[in-house]
Amino acid sequence: MEQVDQDALALVVSSIFRFVDPAGAVAARAEDSRRLGGSRVLDRIWDRLDIGAAIRRSARSRRLDGDAVERFIFTLVAVSPGGWSPRPSSSRPGCPSMAAARSLATRSATAKPRSSGPSSSAHCAERPSSTATAQGQGRRLVGVRGHTVVSWALVAAPILAIAALAWTRRWMSDDAFINVRVVQNIFAGHGPVFNVDERVEVGTSTAWLAALSLRHAVVPFVAISQVAVVLGLVSTVAGLALGSGGAYYLWRHVGRGGFVLPLGTIVAALPPFWDFATSGLETGLTFLWLGACFFALAWRLGRASRAPARPAAWRPLWVAVLVGLGPLVRPDLVLVAALLGLALLVQSRPTWRSYLGGATAALALPVLYEVFRTGYYAALVPNTALAKSAGAALWSKGLTYLDDYAGLYLLAIPLLGVAVFTWMPAVLAQGRCRQWPESALLLAPVLGGLLHALYVVRVGGDFMHGRFLLPATFAVLMPTFVVTVPRGIVSRLAALAPVVGVAVWAVLVPTQVLLPYQGTIGPHGIADERGFYLGYSGAAHPTVIGDYSRRTPRTTGFCAGGRREPWRIGARTCWSIRRRRTQRRTGTAWWVAWATSASTVSKPAPRSSLPTICR
Known about the structure:
Elements: H1 6-16, H2 38-48, H3 51-61, H4 66-78, H5 98-105, H6 130-134, H7 148-168, H8 176-187, H9 206-218, H10 224-253, E1 259-262, H11 271-276, H12 283-305, H13 317-324, H14 326-329, H15 334-346, H16 352-376, H17 383-387, H18 395-407, H19 412-432, H20 436-458, H21 470-477, E2 482-485, H22 489-512, H23 529-537, H24 546-549, E3 557-558, E4 564-565, H25 588-595
Antiparallel strand pairs: 1-2, 3-4
């Protein structure tokens, strides 16, 4: 700041005020002083006085590119003769010296503060300036020049790893063939039902059935089950990539620069993620919805910070609609969607019309489908919610299910490390700065994931190992999928601590921790679903119904009394297990194999002709 020509700065501002109304300028408060280049000082003052916003509005009214015109005019001012240097003396973002800003503020007779207000703490760092974006730094990692390729390679490593591991473990769950039957009935003209003339909603995920139907309409020559396997894998990988992109945008927006490293993508080290990415169920779509929502909200937050005022909650419309799709992906995701919707409202214009418009856009599709559900199925929830007692309270079984997943993989170690060293300091820093939109986006997925996990524990979990807790794990870790390592030594050590710990955990868990009941059913009725059906079918990758129908008889069944008896196609067989919820497995895969073996599904099958798979 010693090299800044105060008189030249005053001359520039006075010349600008000939064209801009001083009443629209913004007063700047002295908060901190750091050594920065002259162009950065001018850029901060430029933003504080709303000069750029006025130029953008004027340019857009003339159908010009407002951002380009504003940057061009700023460049002319910054490089004009008079002592200004276009090269910053430091690349560290922070608050500019307010001595010049304070003297300029006294020249504004009627100055009004911006809607967001200045930082309330001297420790609050400013967001990266728009000058850096104009110079192309917005397209590279924050504070990183020579290590950009290395950073993105590290970020992409867990995404590619989970894609490869999931593909090598591809399979089709028996419950997923229920969706196959429903899609077949839709294209046969019988509607979204399992049995013809029986209006029962057997699918849990409306969005997943819609995605399968749409893909089957595009590629009808490919088996629906194989489409489900590939679509689940693509959705999982895309969800992880979008979540990582959203975390990167969020950390860049809060002004934390440095070397970018993967952290929350430790989900790639969990075997249940490998199994249920290609199970044919809606789990992959759940990951895609979570990652897409987080990316959309982070992108919208950065876009809104560059606008002269906060946008309405329904703008852009697709963001609100995307957040509202949660109940259609899975009904229980309404818990996560509600908190993401609150984050959307916090970063929007605080008016009742804005909130009402955003709520209408988010709830339009779920409400319309609920009207269809009550009229077509005569029910308020899917039949699976009624069959599995989704409103029951089975805390003891739920805690057992939680321990079977989180206790086995020692999830407390990486979760506590990420929370204490990375996530919690960021939340507290944004809270001190009163940056409520940023705080809301950091809190929403974490609280939503914890609330969803609590609901899963309350209803008693599931019989598939870890499946129902995967969305909660994904949501809790999403804000820290990627983190930045600051330049300071102390900050760098604090940021590297969880990274190193997570790296050690990610290496030890997949290699040293094994499921104690691999390929079978555990003592608490929780099964290694994929391992069980691999042994049951005898195929390495059972992805079509024929892989189950070609099975050779083996001694893999369990009778009600505990003795073993071979499975026999079309003959009397035993219960697979008598579960503690007094529910019995009914051989869904074999039932669907018989039901879909005919070339048409136009006529319902008589109940007496059903194979006695489990009696």
